[in-house]
């Protein structure tokens, strides 16, 4: 008889626990495949549409000014070019309302790559094309007249689709041609404007190398560049970080599932020990019997992988249909074989790690044990090497799949530490049960003693229940604290408006308007410029091989100001602030974290390019900035007199008294100062809150999978011990035990296990959330205690119900049937 026929015949006798293995592996692989497929789907979509997202192969950008003659000649020598001028403005539709818009001045060549789909004709002169969603919100139609800056324009088209440089729009886009932009008079010295030159390169050209050479050639000018591969940098970072978080949750679910796989493999091995002994008696070799068991296990594993991978492959098209319109590009529907392969390999490795030891133990059964009537696990040889190798390989695959391997390694280490803590708690529960098993009445004694019975799964179940529940509490408490920070702290401390591009000569008129429209409002006004750091300690930024982590001030242009007094939200950590009447060489105060990342010292120099002119200043102080003040916080602040001659505008914040009509204020500001852009803080907070809620919901769904896995492991472990439970229950019924008493013993066992696991999980999860809020986010730990406490209570109830349902067949077994079965 062949090994295949042996396996087929053996499976006819029942799965013997492999059903639980199939369920655990299916759910774990489905979760892992879904996360990996989503990340791969976004990467694939960005890669396939990189040129269209950017609108070219290379984008060279500079703040506040156009390219000079030499620079423009160098740009045109690279290939076809389109010049895009980006700024923000207030679209004034009269009685229909006003809105902040992202204004793009585009030439005839736009776009060199990508899509520009308009409902109407391309704007010319005193015409604009507006975003269709903005048009719907303000009830605008093609042909309507609106104001932008100091000009009046006709809407010639609605924007249906366009290349956006690979990122999210800060505000609804509006297209205008160069003549119309000039008529608006929004581009003036000191206004916040970005000039972008998007270029199509020759097929053999390397965009990264071309951009690097250009910025090095004009290293003092403050140029920045983006290649098609980095077109969706913001989107990619968001996807990567979200994917890493979801990946860690999926790996947690896989780890919990491995406990269920181990339980299922143990149950399967227990049912096959007698078969192994019988086959050995009739001449079966260890190799042949091992192959038989491997085939049986392999069939179930393949079935689980097929279903799990199929479910995971559905994630990209489902997510794309739900939130695809909110992203710069919809996820590629797939299937993504690379992601599915990683999920399958990880699932197989985890299965080997969890199931190897029980199956090897079954193969160690000696034929003589059958004659003695005992087929317990044989002594065998050490069986830790293969599981250890498989587990290490699974971790290696998980690290490979993560975009941030250092973070993934720390998180996996944290999960192992958490598993060890809950494992120790499980042993403590066993020891406690051993000490207390003679306390109380018969029902209580039997229930407590069951926690330390031979073959119990107390430790395994404590880890399974505690791990998923602690993660859920960690995410829930942290998310609620962040939402509380948004809903209460920001509402109390943040201004109502940020206003930018206020003409410096209009400060007095602006203050008078605020006093008239918003009496009692708090107003702050500071000078505002843009510039790019071009050199640090004499070394050109363009020549740096790698920008250090945390040195974000070197990436692109930055907001700058010059002040005589230290902002209230700042604290000097090193050096000294200059005097109010300082009149000397340019000094600079910078963010302390950025200074640490760049290894700066007091007295070092930094060069900043402003309108193409380099300004070198000596560093006088480092500042710790409280970014939660939600006021003006600049990483770079110059001393008074350093930039007095530079063209600059003013930036203002307005904090209105409660109940004030802010709509009227916005309308009057736009009418009086058409060049001003009014950013309503409440709108930004609302968008951020919506993103946070979506992310929180996604993570909670993933963690719900982990908790469901824990409950399945619990129920599966009960099923795996059903024969032993049925035997114990039959014996108790033979000596007069009543069904309600027997149910009571099971209830005591499951209640103690679930309650103590939930209590430990609550402590671990809430402690981790507090540490995360206090030391990472630096916000107050303020969860909603009613909902937080309901989570472990619900988990306890769910675990008890699941365990009782799994144990019910044993409770319902009749003594006569059980005795005949023996």
TrEMBL record:
Domain MacB-like periplasmic core residue range list: 23-215
Record localization: Cell membrane
ABC3 transporter permease C-terminal domain residues: 248-359, 701-811
Keywords, alphabetical: Cell membrane, Membrane, Transmembrane, Transmembrane helix
InterPro entries: ABC3_permease_C, MacB_PCD, Membrane_comp_ABC_pdt
Membrane topology per record: Multi-pass membrane protein
Chief location bin: membrane
Transmembrane domains' residue ranges: 245-270, 291-319, 339-363, 384-401, 407-429, 461-483, 697-720, 747-777, 789-812
Pfam families per UniProt: FtsX, MacB_PCD
GO cellular component, one term: plasma membrane
PANTHER family assigned to the protein according to its UniProt record, in alphabetical order: INNER MEMBRANE PROTEIN, MEMBRANE COMPONENT OF PREDICTED ABC SUPERFAMILY METABOLITE UPTAKE TRANSPORTER
Official protein name in the record: Putative ABC transport system permease protein
Protein's organism: Sphingomicrobium lutaoense
Taxon lineage: Bacteria, Pseudomonadati, Pseudomonadota, Alphaproteobacteria, Sphingomonadales
